[in-house]
Amino acid sequence: MEKLKNYIYGEWVEGTGNGMPLYNAVTGEQVAVSDTEGLNFEQALDYGRTVGYKNLSSMTFYDRGEMLKKVALYLLERKKKYYELSYKTGATHADSWVDIEGGFGTFFTYSGLAKRMLPNTPFWVDGETQKISANGTFLGTHILTPSEGVSIQINAYNFPVWGMLEKLSTSLLAGVPSIVKPSPYGSYLTNAVFQDMIESGVLPEGALQLVCGEPGNILDYVQDGDSVLFTGSAHTGRKLKSMPSIAGNAVRFNMEADSLNCSILGLDAKPGTPEFDLFIKEVRTEMTTKAGQKCTAIRRIIVPEHLIGDVQNALSKALDQTKIGNPLSRETRMGSLVGKQQYDEVVRKVNILKSETELVYDGKHELIDADYDNGAFMSPKLFLNDKPFEKNISHDVEAFGPVSTLMPYKDAEEAAALAKRGKGSLVGSIISHDESFIAETSWKMASQHGRIFVLNRDNAKESTGHGSPLPTLMHGGPGRAGGGEEMGGLNGLHFFLQKTAIQGSPDVLTAITKVYQQGAEKKFSDKHPFQKYFEDVEVGDSLETAGRTVTDADIVNFSNVSWDHFYAHTDATSLTGTIFDKTVAHGYFILSAAAGLFVSGKKGPVIANYGLENCSFFKPVYAGDTITVYLTAKEKINRGVKGRNIPSGVVKWLVEVVNQRDEIVCVATILTLVAKHSPFIDLNVKNVQKILGGLTETTPLNWGKISPQQMIEHLEHGVLVSLGEPEADKCFTPEEQLEKWQDSLYNHRKMPKDFPAPFLAEDETLLELKHKNLDAAKQSFLDNLKRFSVYYKENPQAEHMNFVFGKLNKEMWELMHKKHFTHHFEQFGLI
User: PANTHER family recorded for this chain (predicted)?
Assistant: First the structure.
């Protein structure tokens, strides 16, 4: 039987003991053996703190976000084999999708957040700069850096993939290396995914390690700066948290534990209403998904007392329709528990619940292509607690399986009180169309819940469901649920980051943070900042504009154009008792006039205005005042670009508007999209002619099989096709892939060197030569390139077919030629 290997200090290592057998939860057959005996955990932690931390923490947040995306794409291509293993854990296809592709989705989400919102630096400036001196020569701010240590994640058995990836999404993005310790049950699935993560070659050395079995004494070696993330029972979690190595050191500890989550049916949600039907569907889903083995599953069903019978009947019928059995059968809607040991534990908890509450539904005991003797199957079980304020067992005992308890309430006050008797939950839901009931109940129960999910007819079609934690929202809960906070968008990174206050002069803070601070030295040059590509812009690049004197006509005209006829701008007789001496210029006029002063009218790398932040007006501007603008590059944000967008970054510009007395009248931050340098040549004919001057009949190839003249005539043929001479009659790219190929014209990735032309046979030459020699071919090519430029000026809407990219317009043809020319010119070492 295969023994699962551990990945420690950069090597795949087998344990030296007999190990623990792991069984198929459906058939009872042995799948693998997990064994961690003989591993040097102290060395593993030290390896993570040194090699792993150095490699990860030196990367920028932006690059770590790109790393997550590459790993997720690599795993997504291999997902089929993960499903085949997941079925052995008892999970259905739907269960497996949540675990496997839900995990990948978390990586994708955090990658997107990093690219949109995090800096291209190894640190992160947090919050606004604080002015802590009268004249602004002494400032303060905060930066976040990766906590100097290693993170150990101890995961539960219910989500072998998502449980690992949702923790790694934040720790890896924060720059902290991790050691993953999955539950032995289902660890063969975790192991398979982990192997591919390492084999992808995307992760730096030391970023990840895997302990696939019992954790041994690994937590004895944690120290200051390390962190532990635990998912499991509250009893085990408290025991770990109190260990001397954790409690006695500055070890960060995050726990997600037991959770007796509830769902409340509103007083208005009577049978026949959409909300009643939604409630029954949601409860059934949460009882049967993953066979109820979810930390977010509904354990307590809180229902108006006069609807208890209706809910019990409707829910019992819905559960009767849920077919249980082998996950490989298409009919199956609920699989098994993860193993016999877990089955025995759930039975023990069910018997405890029976001691105080009535079992009112025990399900059908029929199985599809499976049997109870070999598999860990359990039918759904519904209890009734008729006196939930007196009988506390339902609020104290969690049976981690398809088990839930009905309980009645009288009013919103009682509903919230029952919800809170769970003593801390990951999630509570309210299903109602009565906004007053929802509002009153939700804020009263919020203190004991990490998330409140409200469902009704208005959001049902797009709702993700009671039991689905989302990467952009916090996953965790107070009290019994452990007090942990995972994910929650960028907030989830804070657990792994050290926050440090930075104090100093504006120049010092600018140097440290890479964000321009007001009062720091400005860098003036003859070149307008808007004429610089993204890579060339430096924080501190500045422009001082000419002055503009505001006139009465400006104020009147702006009122008429904007329709802003506020009295302070238009009626001098109404200013008594106001802060204005006379009619004042509109604030938005000042901002618009400032833009008119600092914008460069000449076409350049600045693509568009991307936004406006923190605009403030400090002093009124009257007719006769003269304004001058200081424009300064404040911050650069690298940006991932998709689809048909020009590769670009965002530059934040500080706009300071002063009057003739050098008083600041307006300060704002504008955001612009700024193009990045293209790696492809310009189509300028003189530029191309200069490049071709270096091409001779004897110029050697860097790759491929083509002569210099064949290459020139091949490019010329491409130009002629873009003019419709001749019109290509076919595109060889399948229709379903065409949009992706056309989008690729916009990115800065070069054409692959080994790409075979799809319209040529393997032994076919590109074209038969039509020109007498290379010089004649060059001249003809340049003449047709001139024709291309003129043609699309005269026919800007023209479109012609390309053999690979389909029908292309002027912009796309230009992009295609730039890439194509660059490809072949590099082939001959001309550029």
Answer: ALDEHYDE DEHYDROGENASE B-RELATED (PTHR43111:SF1)
Q: Which domains does the chain have, with CATH numbers?
A: 6-256 (3.40.605.10), 262-465 (3.40.309.10), 522-675 (3.10.129.10), 685-828 (no CATH)
pLDDT value, residue 761: 45
Residue among 66, 101, 166, 256 flagged as catalytic: 256
Pair 665, 590: CB distance under 8 Å: yes
User: Among residues 295, 656, 713, 814, which one is catalytic?
Assistant: 295
Average pLDDT of the chain is: 93
Angle at 180 between CA 72 and CA 199, to 5 degrees: 45
Residue 476, C-beta contacts closer than 8 angstroms, at least 6 positions apart: 254, 256, 426, 450, 482, 483, 484, 485, 486
Per-residue model confidence (pLDDT) at position 654: 96
Specify whether the CB–CB gap between 695 and 777 falls below 8 A: no
Query: CA 213, 346, 211 angle in degrees (round to 5)?
Result: 10
State how far the Cα of 50 lies from the Cα of 60, in Å rounded to an integer.
18
Predicted TM-score (pTM) of this structure: 0.86
How crowded is the C-beta side of 454, counted as CA atoms within 13 Å?
Answer: 16
The three-state secondary structure class of 766 is coil
Mean pLDDT of 627-654: 90
Dihedral, 390, 395, 397, 398 alpha carbons, nearest 10:
150
295 classed as catalytic: yes
What HEC string does 112-147 produce? HHHHHHCCCCCCEEEEEEEECCCCCCCEEEEEEEEC
All residues at 6 or more sequence positions from 248 whose CB lies less than 8 Å from its CB, including other chains: none
Instruction: Tell me what percent of the chain is helix, strand and coil, each rounded to the nearest 5.
Output: 40, 20, 40
Dihedral sign, CA of 811, 816, 822, 824? Answer: negative
Q: What confidence tier does 816 reach under pLDDT thresholds 50, 70, 90?
A: very high
What is the model's pLDDT at position 762? 46
Residue 429 pLDDT exceeds 60: yes
Q: Give yes or no: 731 in active site.
A: no
79-86 vs 187-199: helix axis angle to the nearest 10?
170
- pLDDT at residue 214 tops 90: no
The tokens describing 672, both together, are 């612009």
Which stretches of 4-78 are DSSP H helices?
A: 41-47, 53-57, 61-76
The pLDDT value given to residue 726:
87
Residue type (1 letter), 211? V
